[in-house]
Specification:
Shape: globular
Strand content: 15-25%
Structural class: alpha/beta
Number of strands: 3
Largest sheet: 3 strands, parallel
């Protein structure tokens, strides 16, 4: 990470503000999974053919594993699941909750 990113993260941490952990299949935004607050906020927005029918089960399993790891660190997880085929998002969210 560069100095500006480190400085930004330290400010967020000082004020207990969660920086979004954004998963963009097209990698349009920087990815970080390091906590800056007492909770984690993840935004899952898969794009492209891989996500045409929502998040594949292996991807959801990987995110569930991350969420369990955050929970072990004492962090609550808030996850927004939305992909291009929005009608699949509710089913993906239910799978993620299991």
């Amino acid at each position: 990470m560069n100095h500006a990113v480190d400085h930004f993260r330290s400010i967020m941490h000082a004020h207990n503000v969660a920086v979004v952990c954004a998963h963009e299949a097209a990698e349009k935004s920087p990815y970080t999974a390091a906590p800056t607050a007492e909770c984690m906020y993840a935004r899952l927005h898969g794009e492209g053919k891989k996500f045409a029918k929502g998040y594949p089960d292996p991807d959801l399993a990987a995110w569930a594993k991350r969420m369990r790891a955050w929970k072990k660190q004492g962090l609550d997880s808030f996850v927004y699941l939305s992909n291009e085929a929005k009608e699949y998002s509710p089913a993906g969210a239910l799978k993620l909750m299991k």
